[in-house]
Amino acid sequence: MNYRHAFHAGNHGDCLKHALLVALIEALRRKDTPFAVADLHAGRGRYDLAGGEAARTGEWRSGIGRLLDDPPPALAGYVALVRRLGLYPGSPAIARALLRPQDRLVLNEKHPEEYTALAAWADGDRRITLRCGDAYALRGLVPPAGLRRGLILFDPPYESPDEHGRVAAALHAAHRAAPTFMLAVWYPVKHLAPVRALRDALRGLPKRVDAALHLRPPFDPARLNGSGLLVVNAPWRYDEQARAILEALALRLAEDPGAGIHLEAGHD
């Protein structure tokens, strides 16, 4: 309950997560049938980078701050969306901007103050369903809105020592409940042991694409050295999009000579 994403809004992890999120939702928009996006760790919706928590850390300056001017082609759509929405859009704002009238957005946030801000941001939009509760209590959230296709996003703070195990179990449960939905989980990269454990725990799930950006060698467990987004039921050719996005992010955000990308596709 202590984590506030506002301190980290617009950082390199957000850039990776949100650029890939845009690609996934754009894939859903290719068909006319309605879809739902469920963001189970929603935060407050959008963030002011010039004031408050984000200004105190300044993490955005080495993230979205390096992409706003003349972004590489693979990031152009994401950066244009950020500019159009104003402030810094969290995952809920990005998803909302890409919804059509027939689509739905389900937002869950556990922190009461963040939830209050999220509800004010949603402002009665009839396409949005809000819940304040535990993201791992999936009943009633998955599958969302009774629809048969869409995306379910897990983005926990990883403050708990067992978070990787909990999120792996939740993805398996979500796949059983909504086997036709895309599932996505963001994860931090500090050192590789917990990341490998998460990847191994999800290997039985179908059409996986695991995309990670390492800003420096991932050997220091006390430092955020990168992050990744692992997708289940990934859409056609998403792995090619993910590679282009990773390479563009590495070009703009990485400074360490040990920086690199990880891209793995599996079809168990």
How does this structure look, described?
- The structure is a single chain.
- This protein is an alpha/beta fold and 268 residues long.
- It is 35% helix and 19% strand.
- Strands 5-4-1-6-7-9-8-10 form an eight-stranded mixed beta sheet, with helices on both faces. It has a two-stranded antiparallel sheet with strand order 2-3.
- Helix 6 (163-177) runs parallel beside helix 7.
- The mean pLDDT is 94.
Give me some keywords for this one:
two-stranded antiparallel sheet; 19% strand; 10 strands; 268 residues; globular; alpha/beta
Return residue spans where pLDDT drops below 50 for at least 5 consecutive residues. Answer: none
Average pLDDT value? 94
The outline comes out as: globular
What is the beta-strand fraction?
15-25%
- By DSSP, the count of extended strands is 10
Helix content: 25-40%
H/E series: HEEHHEHEHEEHEHEEHE
Taking the sheet with the most strands, its summary is: 8 strands, mixed
- SS-based class: alpha/beta
Strand order of the largest sheet: 5-4-1-6-7-9-8-10
Mind telling me the C-alpha Rg?
17 Å
So how many helices? 8
Cα(first) to Cα(last) distance is 36 Å
